[in-house]
Structure formats: structure tokens, C-alpha cells
Design goal:
The chain has 286 residues and is of the alpha/beta class. The longest helix is centred in the middle third of the chain and has 17 residues. It has a single domain, classed as 2-enoyl-CoA Hydratase, Chain A, domain 1, CATH 3.90.226.10. It is globular. It is built from ten helices and eleven strands. The chain has a seven-stranded mixed β-sheet with strand order 3-4-5-6-7-8-9, sandwiched between helices. It has a two-stranded antiparallel sheet with strand order 1-2. Helix content is 34%, strand content 17%.
């Protein structure tokens, strides 16, 4: 008789970082990585976000061959980037391309904090810029999920120049009459916040997402005092900086209704091909 193994796979359970409840990984995935006990939104990698956002098999990557820029010959920068590639299975901190959501085509960008803190260097800025410019030409709505620690210090001024470059690209979308939806996820700071994150025609945020220019540790170094929760999505929503505060389970159907609205069509009850649940309708036009 074969011996019964007592080995428990290490990824079978996951602890909620907020309430510390031990959660079954499969159930957590079914809940789109939102704690069913306290509602905490766990961080997603780019592949998890893609899975719950776009129709299965619809994503077509764009500009995934741009080379790393190391203008300062910054110590350990190329090896650090290589380690990030191996860890995340990405070649930069943002994935961009074309996808469909319930068969509606749109341009999609997804940032991943796991790749050097989601920092914006030349490649990130160039991908965002090209995404917006191509979508302006093709008249495709743009959706970008933002998550970043800010500009990438290893690229110095080249990194900072991505702020006006991406802002100008957002302006081209506006001039072309092509909508841009920005989705703020936890956390979003620095040059990414100060550029394309807050230039969306509609700005959405997940609950509890931290958003601001200087992060709490930077503010602490200055010796200045900051009111509690100022850098929270809830505070920014209350004071008009964010248009919609949307739970992660509702973002798919919210985006669908917005894309239908921009396209001038009526939403219908359609299968959510990203996760098998029905896409609900009715909230945004009531």
C-alpha cells in the first residue's frame, strides 16, 4: 500500500495581509484576490489582472521588444532588471497591447509593482506613449491599470522626461476624441501619478489604494506632517480627484459599460469570458 503523503503545497493557502485570515488560494482566485472576510484587495501581478480584465486569448502585446536603457551605467541595474524578468515573467514594469472585453476592442496597459517597484523608466514611458498614439490612430479606447513607486532612479532625467512625454500622448488621445480610462491600484506614486494616471477622462480607483506624489516614507524624511489617510483612494474620491471608487469584482462590468457608452451601444447581458461569471448591467445608466 502506498504511503500517504503529508506534504501540503506551499501555495495552497494565502494569508490576508490585513486581517491575517488564512485563505484557500483557489477560493481567493475565485474572489479575484479580494479577502472574503475583510474586503482587502490583495496586490495582483500583471497576469492575474489580465485574466480578470480581458476576454480569454484576446490580448495582443505591443512594443514588447524595446531595449533596457542604462544611461548612467548605474551599478547593478542590468542584473537587477534581469532578476525582475525572471521573477515576474515580464520584460518591463508594464504590459501594453490590444485586447477585447466582451468583444469590444480597446488598448490595455497593466503595470506590475513586482518589476522594480513598478517604476517608470524609458521603456515604460515609451510603451504608454506608443499605446496612446496607436489607439488615437485606430480610435480605440485606452484603459491603463496604474501601480508604481514612481520614476526609476537608475535612469535619472531620462526617467523624469517620461512624464511630459506620456502627458503629451494623453493630449493626443483627447484631441482625437478617443477616451482614456485610468484605473488606480495600490499603490500609485510619484511620476506616474503626476503624469498619465490623473489625465484619464474617467479615473477609477480600487478601495484602499494608496495614491499620491511623495510616498509616506519620503514625506517623513522632510519632517512635514501629513493628515491621516490623505493618500487614500477614499480621501481622493471624497475630494473630487477620482470619479469612481469601484470594488475589484465590479471593475470588469464597470469598464464594459463605459466602453459601451463610449462606443454608443447599449450594454447587454454577456458572458464575462475572463472569469466565467455573467457581466451584470444596470448600474451606470440608472
Amino acid at each position: 500500500m502506498a504511503a500517504v503523503s503529508n506534504h501540503i503545497p506551499p501555495d495552497l493557502w494565502e494569508e490576508c495581509p490585513s486581517c491575517h485570515q488564512l485563505l484557500y488560494s483557489k477560493q481567493l482566485a475565485d474572489e479575484q484576490w479580494v479577502c472574503p472576510r475583510c474586503g482587502h484587495h490583495l496586490r495582483l501581478n500583471v497576469w492575474q489582472r489580465l485574466k480578470i480584465t480581458a476576454d480569454v486569448g484576446s490580448f495582443e502585446p505591443w512594443d514588447d521588444d524595446l531595449p533596457l536603457v542604462d544611461p548612467l551605467n548605474f551599478p547593478d541595474y542590468p542584473p537587477k532588471a534581469e532578476r525582475a524578468r525572471e521573477k515576474t515573467q515580464m520584460n518591463e514594469a508594464i504590459l501594453t497591447g490590444r485586447a477585447t472585453l466582451n468583444d469590444i476592442s480597446f488598448g490595455l496597459g497593466i503595470m506590475d509593482l513586482s518589476f522594480i517597484g513598478g517604476s517608470m523608466g524609458w521603456v515604460v514611458g515609451e510603451r504608454v506613449t506608443r499605446l496612446m498614439e496607436q489607439c488615437a490612430d485606430q480610435r480605440l479606447p485606452v484603459v491603463i491599470f496604474c501601480a508604481s513607486g514612481g520614476a526609476r532612479m537608475q535612469e535619472s532625467l531620462i526617467s523624469l522626461m517620461q512624464m511630459p512625454k506620456t502627458s503629451a500622448a494623453a493630449g493626443k488621445l483627447r484631441e482625437a476624441g478617443v477616451p482614456y480610462i485610468s484605473v488606480i491600484t495600490h499603490p500609485t506614486y510619484g511620476g506616474v501619478t503626476a503624469s498619465y494616471t490623473f489625465l484619464g477622462d474617467i479615473i477609477i480607483a480600487e478601495p484602499q489604494a494608496a495614491v499620491g506624489f511623495a510616498g509616506p516614507r519620503v514625506v517623513e524624511v522632510t519632517g512635514l506632517e501629513m493628515r491621516p489617510h490623505v493618500q487614500s483612494a477614499e480621501f481622493q474620491y471624497k475630494h473630487g480627484m477620482i470619479d469612481l471608487l469601484v470594488n475589484r469584482q465590479d471593475i470588469h462590468r464597470t469598464l464594459y459599460r463605459l466602453l459601451c457608452w463610449f462606443k454608443g451601444t447599449s450594454p447587454v447581458n454577456a458572458a464575462n469570458t475572463a472569469n466565467g461569471r455573467p457581466a451584470l448591467v444596470g448600474e451606470l445608466d440608472e
